[in-house]
Design a protein that fits this description.
about 200 residues; mainly beta; Jelly Rolls; nine-stranded antiparallel β-sheet; about 50% strand
Length: about 200
């Protein structure tokens, strides 16, 4: 199911409804600079997912492992983010896990993975084609990153640009998932869902 949306230059409120639509509200009534984009729901093969992982690797997760649906945002600088609190400080971030799948019709579009500190400063960025990491069926994907020592809360951000779907867990919201804007940087907490993005470290 595809839904048409409107986003304007200065974003004040971003809300994601249970039906999967993103509504973007603005203080201004001037729609002259409005841009249209679409959000799509992920065609899930299974509501419950699993990943063959090294159980000795400490993982931070706020979802329950069950994806009720998934979203893909096509606008270049808007994506999903999860705020993580390391179990100890300092803590070494080694990998990111994302539940999702590649959108084969846009597999030639580059997605971005970014790590931000607690003040939204960029710590790390990876850009690549989604097909290089994600399969065409919904499952967990591991993305290795250079070892990064963190001493405070940090964000993992995915800017999929329509090239992949990110899983959404609708049970017991942890209040750590955000719709995030890259430039100018901003974010709005999503109170109804958990994006299925996890952090792995040591």
């Amino acid at each position: 199911m595809r839904k048409e949306l409107i986003i304007v230059t200065v974003i004040v409120v971003i809300m994601v409804s249970a039906a999967g639509a993103i509504t973007v509200a603005n203080m201004s009534d001037d729609q002259a600079n409005a841009q249209r984009y679409e959000i799509s729901e992920m065609p899930l093969q299974s509501a419950v997912s699993s990943l063959d992982v090294d159980e000795t690797e400490p993982e931070i997760s706020y979802d329950d492992g069950s994806a009720e649906q998934g979203f893909s945002i096509s606008l270049f600088d808007i994506g999903h983010a999860v705020l993580f609190t390391p179990p100890t400080k300092p803590w070494t971030l080694k990998k990111v896990r994302v539940y999702g799948l590649c959108n084969v019709t846009l597999s030639n579009v580059v997605f971005a993975l970014e790590i931000w500190d607690n003040d939204s400063n960029l710590l790390y960025k990876l850009s690549d084609y989604s097909i290089a990491y994600f399969n065409t069926t919904s499952e967990w994907t591991e993305i290795d990153i250079p070892d990064m020592i963190v001493t405070d809360d940090f964000y993992v951000c995915i800017f999929e640009r329509g090239s992949l779907y990110v899983g959404v867990d609708e049970g017991n919201p942890a209040m750590r998932s955000y719709v995030v804007i890259r430039d100018p940087k901003g974010m709005v907490k999503e109170e109804g869902f958990n994006w299925m993005i996890r952090a792995v470290g040591a």
